[in-house]
Each structure stands twice: as structure tokens, then as C-alpha cells.
Design brief:
- The protein has 304 residues and is α+β, with helices and mostly antiparallel strands.
- Helix content is 48%, strand content 13%.
- A hairpin with a 5-residue loop joins β1 and β2.
- The chain starts with 14 loop residues before the first helix and ends with a helix.
Length: 304
């Protein structure tokens, strides 16, 4: 009698696990994805706390989500990112360029970690006894770090816990890749939307602190490429009147050409307040030249 083939999956696909996997898939691209990952990990091993943060080579870590019992901590939640992170074995491993993977504190901590000042002053004060980290690299300078922890009131992780987490790692990292693609695209869309709102605000408020309403009407025909004659036709007035308005606009804005006017308008977009009524020109002029975004005129001069 032949033996039945063994399943290559080492984790039983029971109700909680399949539900957690389905929830993880459904949460891709949403803010709930990080909690879904932690919930999934919690179905294969007991965890007391955990979270996710973004590691950066040139700036401090950014916490995304953190679950913990405040009664087991004697330090504030932001204590880690205020400075101690630089001594953390996981952060140091990231800085050294470790690849994406699952890392157990037992395997990566320095030999005198539990006798170190970092452990005495910080680690022992946040109520932890052990941790496992899933570090997923975006690039050389950035990584997502998902961590699960055991408190000092619980036993440390065991080898079977590590094996369970490693079994889920390919699925979690594949999910992380898709989640990052979707959220990065959403972030770009939001940036595009914000830029558009700033442009609209500039159109509505540019030079409103200096020009009359009629002068501003003429101004936008000017930057749109309308001649004095066609502007006069659109505004139902004479060409001579439009030329007077143009002269006044140049004088009030302290410019001498259409190119200067266009450049001034474009450079003010960064200083506009979406859905606001403030004149972005006022903010632009009050900002030191060195602190302004790269000016259009300067860019033109550099490439001309």
C-alpha cells in the first residue's frame, strides 16, 4: 500500500490562517495592509507586540504602525526613533546592507548585547524579551521592517516560530511589492492633484494684492499669449486701454517683459495655498532667494 503524498506546506490551512491570508490579499494597497500582515503572523505564532517601520539610511526611521501594551513599557512610544535606533541590531544590520529576509534577534545581536548599555537603558525598559524581524528592501537606502515581539512576561521565540514566519515570508514580501507599487502610484496621483490645486489657486490669486481685478484679467490674457488687440476684443474695450493696463502691470510687478511675467507666475505656484485666497506672489517675494525653489529664469539661463 502506497503512502499518501505529503503536502509541501508546513502550516495547516485552517480557518484562521486562510481568513488571515484572504484579508492580507484584500488589504493590499490600503492603510490596513500593515495590520493584516501582523494578524497573519499572529496566526502562526504567538506575539505580544509588533509593528512596522520604514528604515532610511539618511534620516531617522519612520514608524508606520505599532502594537504594544503600554503597561509593560517605562519609556514613551517615540523613544526608539528619538535616537536609540542607531544602536539597534536590526538597524545596524540594515545599514550594513543586509538582504531582504527574516532575522531573529538571537542570531543577529552582538555577543554582549544583553550586557550592553543599550539593552540596560533602552531595550529592557520597553518590556521585551525577544523579536523577529522581516526586513524587505526597497533599495540600498530604504527598507520596510515588520517586527513581532515577545514581552518579558512570555518565553522567547522558538525555532518552530522562526520556521513558521519563514514559510510566510515569500507571500508577505510578494504582497509588500504589490502594496508598495499601488501606494506609490497613489502618492504620485496625490502629488499630481496637489500640483493642480496649487496651479488653480495661483490662477485665482496671483498678484491680487497689487493689481486691480481688471488688470488681473488683462494679465492672464498676457501670459496666455493674447495680443493687446485680441485681449481688447475679449474684454470689450479698446486696444489703447489694454496697453495702459499692460504698462501698469509691468510697473506694479517691477518687470519689463512677457518672459519675466511668465517666469514670475510659474515660480509662484509653489507658494500657492490650495483652496485659499492668499496671493502667492506675496509669499514668494517675502521668501529669501536662497530658500526659493529653482527658478524658471535661472533654468532657462543655464540651458540657453
Amino acid at each position: 500500500m502506497q503512502k499518501p503524498p505529503k503536502s509541501p506546506l508546513c502550516l495547516p490551512l485552517d480557518g484562521p490562517l486562510t481568513t488571515a491570508l484572504a484579508t492580507l490579499t484584500q488589504a493590499i494597497g490600503s492603510a490596513e495592509w500593515f495590520d493584516a500582515v501582523l494578524n497573519l503572523l499572529g496566526t502562526v505564532c504567538d506575539i505580544d507586540s509588533g509593528g512596522a517601520m520604514m528604515y532610511h539610511r539618511h534620516q531617522r526611521p519612520r514608524r508606520i504602525v505599532h502594537r504594544f501594551n503600554p503597561q509593560e513599557r517605562s519609556l514613551p512610544e517615540d523613544a526608539y526613533i528619538s535616537g536609540p535606533y542607531v544602536l539597534c541590531p536590526n538597524y545596524q544590520m540594515f545599514i550594513r546592507g543586509c538582504p531582504s529576509g527574516v532575522y531573529w534577534l538571537r542570531d543577529i545581536a552582538p555577543d554582549d548585547f544583553y550586557d550592553s548599555e543599550f539593552y540596560r537603558v533602552f531595550y529592557s525598559q520597553i518590556g521585551l524579551s525577544d523579536s523577529i524581524d522581516l526586513l524587505w528592501r526597497l533599495d540600498d537606502d530604504t527598507a520596510l521592517n515588520i517586527f513581532i515581539e515577545r514581552s518579558i512576561s512570555s518565553c522567547k521565540f522558538q525555532a518552530m516560530d522562526m520556521l513558521a514566519v519563514e514559510s510566510l515570508m515569500p507571500m508577505i514580501f510578494a504582497s509588500a511589492t504589490k502594496h508598495h507599487e499601488l501606494t506609490a502610484a497613489a502618492s504620485r496621483r496625490e502629488t499630481d492633484n496637489l500640483t493642480h490645486r496649487k496651479v488653480q489657486s495661483t490662477m485665482e490669486n496671483f498678484a491680487s494684492s497689487l493689481l486691480t481685478q481688471r488688470e488681473r484679467q488683462v494679465l492672464f490674457y498676457m501670459i496666455s499669449g493674447y495680443s493687446s488687440a485680441l485681449t481688447a476684443e475679449r474684454l470689450n474695450t479698446t486696444e489703447g486701454t489694454i496697453k495702459i493696463h499692460r504698462k501698469n502691470i509691468h510697473k506694479k510687478l517691477d518687470i519689463s517683459s512677457q518672459a519675466e511675467l511668465f517666469s514670475l507666475f510659474i515660480n509662484c505656484i509653489a507658494f500657492a495655498t490650495p483652496e485659499g485666497s492668499a496671493d502667492p506672489l506675496t509669499r514668494y517675494q517675502s521668501t529669501p532667494a536662497a530658500a526659493r525653489p529653482f527658478a524658471l529664469q535661472a533654468a532657462r539661463a543655464a540651458t540657453g
